[in-house]
Design brief:
- The protein is of the alpha/beta class and about 350 residues long.
- Helix content is about 45%, strand content about 15%.
- The chain is built from 16 helices and twelve strands.
- The strands form three sheets. The chain has a six-stranded parallel β-sheet with strand order 9-8-7-10-11-12, sandwiched between helices. Strands 3-4-5-6 form a four-stranded parallel β-sheet, sandwiched between helices.
- Helix 13 links the parallel strand 11 and strand 12.
- It starts with a helix and ends with a helix.
Amino acid sequence: MYPALAVLRALEKDVEAVLWVGSEGGMEADLVQRAGVPFTAVPAAGVHGVGLRALPGNLLRLSRGVIASRRILHQFRPQVLLFTGGYVAVPMALAAARRVPSLLFVPDIEPGLALKTLARFAHTIALVASPSRAYFSKTKAHLQVTGYPTRPDLIGWNREQGRNHLGLSLDSKVLLVAGGSKGALSINRAVWNTLPRLLQLAEVVHLTGQAHWEETRQVMAQLPEDLVSRYHPLPYLHEMGAALTAADLVISRAGASTLGEYPLFGLPAILVPYPFAWRYQKVNADYLVNQGAAVMVKDQALPEQLLPRVAELFKDDVRLQQMRDRMSALARPRAADEIAELVKQMVRHRSTTGDVP
């Protein structure tokens, strides 16, 4: 969702009308409408790995989604379609059936099944990094490496502003722990179990997730008085740019946004791929590790390895700076503008020739 919003922001002066098509009951409706983008929903459901009981119902929802998508295409008459993945895009791709120019953005290094399906209908595919090309060797679509479009609200902070906003000292090392908007329980507990020793190494900004906030308060109550001021837990942080610019090191999962946001801020990372899903996060983490910008710790090894890895990096300023430099080298701050330009090229081509590119 956030990459699509970033591209729309880059396109806002060049687009007469936008319609966001999401899933019925999806979580994106409120956030998209809050961004001022018109929203409509279609029935959608995954059909891969859902089991025989759910498959007939999901196929029915998919067919209903295709019918609803055809109706939207007839009424809205878009000049171009932008897909950023997920099974909700499949009904629209099937309904358009390559009659409308489409651009697919692939946020992870390895595409998921829905993205592989969408790639069959795409005219242009925007990739976050070059290794993604290997997964589209058989496609006829034009492949373009653009990077990951980051949210415009991330920028505008400098290190001093970020630290002042979060109540951090200007001269201490800062560790950011980010488990995503809902938090990551295994990361949270590994941090809590070693918190007094972590706080001797650095101030800690800990984004715990709302669901884990009560447990966080209990941990805070047990901290020694002299360490309380060095721990900065928050259930959620809207001003994420402040934390990313203030931190010297981050511990997090390895979701797609890490491929764009950490390079943008040159932020070295300890990545802990989510273990209970397909290998997308592991592939993302491998990419950043191979570039020398991050280290990886398996989820099950985190309780034993978290403290030694943090201590190792914070005691080696030369290596930390090398990781910072290599992470910065991966930054593509104009990714949203590049994708927006691809969209405009597709529209211009069709307006000039009448053909789908």
